[in-house]
Design brief:
The chain is mainly beta. The longest helix has 16 residues. It is globular, with a radius of gyration of 23 Å.
């Protein structure tokens, strides 16, 4: 290769790399002010509750302000964020000026940068509401890799990863130590291809795994189209989805996809960093006989959502495909490209 060709090749390589460095997608750069300062979790108490009313003897109150679409929200009120607690009330709300407003019978609520205030009722008893916005976060945010762990991603490079077809990773390496899915669906005409799932270059069986992630707001999207990705161990998936305010079903965040719903919906609001801490035990064979299936414990934001669950079948959308035998060999860990710009950081694994 002559010097001119070498120089051109280096320039092209640098330009290609720069295309995936530091530039986040529009889902992260075009965010409404209300989603930055009003959407999210609220905590506080009922005030001026009637004597011996339910609110009087159970004063704790929590709320979720959930983005539905541009200017459209949904509010849920319950006694605790991290338990499957009774829902006192849920209903639509609208952005009016700088406030999100809900009016429905005895429920009259305003959400402003100063908090969530107004009135609501339980069992026909009306009481005042006074809640403050909180970031629940996770106790394992920023967790350091233990001795003997393999750092899979520290924000500096993709050296431990590749696309499943062997290509170098074409996701975006962000300033600040995170990566962002650069979706294949958004780059359909790219040549060479851009996007697609990524897998570790190393292969694993029994592991302890830590990862931090977050999803964008994506107003107007819902269900499996919103904040969707997945974390796979030997082809078994712990689902990633924007499940904030949802029911916590078997295809939502914290679920073992199409197998086991999370014990509680511990999903945090869009744009907030969350954690997955996983202990995965691979299937064990003796000859051709499966002696013990795979098992997994999953902590979402420090909360156990799957406790030593048996993985009865391979992850598959089609029921017929769930008859695939349990894997015998070590396989790469996989992060899915499901067309949403999920961000990841601080990924490490320790073989057990």
């Amino acid at each position: 290769m002559n010097n001119r060709i070498t120089t051109c090749f280096l320039i092209f390589s640098l330009l290609s790399l720069s295309a995936f460095a530091g530039k986040s997608g529009p889902e992260w750069t075009n965010v409404a002010e209300a989603d930055k300062v009003l959407m999210g979790d609220y905590e506080g108490e009922w005030r001026s509750a009637p004597d011996k009313s339910y609110q009087d003897i159970n004063p704790r109150l929590c709320a979720q302000v959930i983005n539905v679409d541009e200017g459209e929200y949904y509010l849920k009120f319950t006694q605790d964020h991290n338990l499957r607690a009774e829902i006192y009330y849920e209903g639509p709300a609208t952005l009016k000026g700088d406030a999100i407003v809900l009016k429905d019978g005895d429920w009259n609520v305003r959400v402003t940068k100063n908090g969530l205030t107004g009135k609501g009722s339980v069992g026909g008893k009306v009481a005042e509401i006074d809640l403050k916005r909180v970031v629940l976060g996770s106790p394992t945010l920023g967790a350091k890799p233990p001795k003997g762990a393999i750092v899979l991603f520290d924000g500096s490079d993709f050296d431990e990863w590749q696309h499943d077809d062997g290509r170098a990773v074409t996701w975006t390496l962000l300033d600040g130590g995170a990566m962002e899915i650069n979706p294949k669906a958004a780059n359909k005409d790219a040549n060479p291809p851009i996007g697609g799932k990524i897998v570790t270059k190393r292969k694993f069986k029994d592991v302890r795994y830590h990862m931090e992630f977050r999803y964008p707001v994506e107003p107007g999207l819902s269900g499996q189209k919103r904040g969707n990705s997945g974390l796979f161990f030997q082809s078994y998936e712990a689902q990633i989805l924007n499940s904030y305010g949802l029911d916590g079903l078997w295809n939502e965040l914290g679920a073992l996809y199409k197998l086991s719903p999370p014990k509680v919906n511990a999903a945090r609001p869009p744009m907030e960093w969350q954690t997955y801490d996983v202990n995965y035990t691979a299937p064990v064979y003796e000859g051709d006989e499966l002696k013990s299936p795979a098992r997994i414990t999953v902590r979402l934001n420090g909360i156990v959502v799957q406790k030593n669950e048996t993985l009865l079948h391979q992850t598959a959308h089609r029921q017929a495909d769930r008859a695939v035998p349990a894997p015998r060999n070590a396989l790469p860990i996989e992060l899915q490209d499901h067309s949403n710009r999920i961000q990841f950081r601080n990924i490490w694994v320790k073989e057990l």
